[in-house]
Amino acid sequence: MAAVSLRGVLTVSTVNVNGLRAAARKGFVEWLSATRADVVCLQETRAELDQLPGHLRQPDGWHPVFAHCEVRGRNGVGLLTREAPGAVRIGFGDPEFDGSGRYVEVTLPGLVVASLYLPSGDVGTPRQEEKERFMASFLPYLVELREKATAGGREVLVCGDWNIAHREVDLKNWKANRRSSGFLPEERAWLDRVFGDVGYVDVVRRLHPDVAGPYSWWSYRGRAFDNDSGWRIDYHVATPGLAERAVRAVVERAPSYDTRWSDHAPVTVTYQ
């Protein structure tokens, strides 16, 4: 099996599966068998290893790493890599969140890649307060991660469901959602810091600077999918050196509502 290296071509996909076992029954397994990705980042797997059948726990041709939530049936993230990873880290050093199944990272040649499931929040509820605490704690870790990776001669890629639409072009009905979690001014300002002060790059937006979306999540309610009334909340967030090597980004949107296996679609980027 060829080594994953920044000297060659690296293709990375990220997708919130909205329940790994449910997605597998609807088409995820077939998608995984067909993908040419070298790395697949999963969010909201909602399962512990003992709940997964063998073909999901150990997919053929992949080296899996999963981080489940201590609350059974919630959250959960994973990474599938063609090459066996080096170091593995679950959580980012915050006791409140390290057992919540929201962050896992691995080291590959020249690269640290992570799968992130940032809390979704709900304005005026404890869920929003949890999201705010997560953001406050995670930002310093992003700084630390970049500094350590740079010192070690590696790039960083944090993929996943960030649950924030950064700009007006990142969601169809932005005017109606100005007071909704996921598009609050303070959440968007936090992403400003990630992409400004901390120095990471929104890879898909860099490749598609002037387009609406491309959206990666559509509500199951109404005709959101059919009308392409979506949100772009699934990101590839990279250090500048890696972002500059991105040559192609696509959202693998299902051809029709009834062929979806998640309310999200895979976001796939090829790095040269």
Automatic annotation (TrEMBL):
Domain (Endonuclease/exonuclease/phosphatase) ranges: 14-264
UniProt-annotated site: Transition state stabilizer, residues: N163
BP GO terms, sorted: DNA repair
CDD domains noted in UniProt: Nape_like_AP-endo
Active site: Y117, D161, H264
Coiled coil location: none
Keywords (A to Z) from UniProt: Hydrolase, Magnesium, Manganese, Metal-binding
Cofactor(s) annotated in UniProt: Mg(2+); Mn(2+)
Site (Important for catalytic activity): D234
GO molecular function, one term: metal ion binding
Keyword Metal-binding belongs to the record: yes
Manner of cofactor binding, per the entry note: Probably binds two magnesium or manganese ions per subunit.
UniProt-listed PROSITE patterns: AP_NUCLEASE_F1_4 (PS51435)
TM spans (from-to): none
Binding site for Mg(2+): N16, E44, D161, N163, D263, H264
Site (Interaction with DNA substrate): H264
A Pfam family hit: Exo_endo_phos
Protein family according to the UniProt entry: Belongs to the DNA repair enzymes AP/ExoA family.
Listed name of the protein: Exodeoxyribonuclease
Organism, as annotated: Gandjariella thermophila
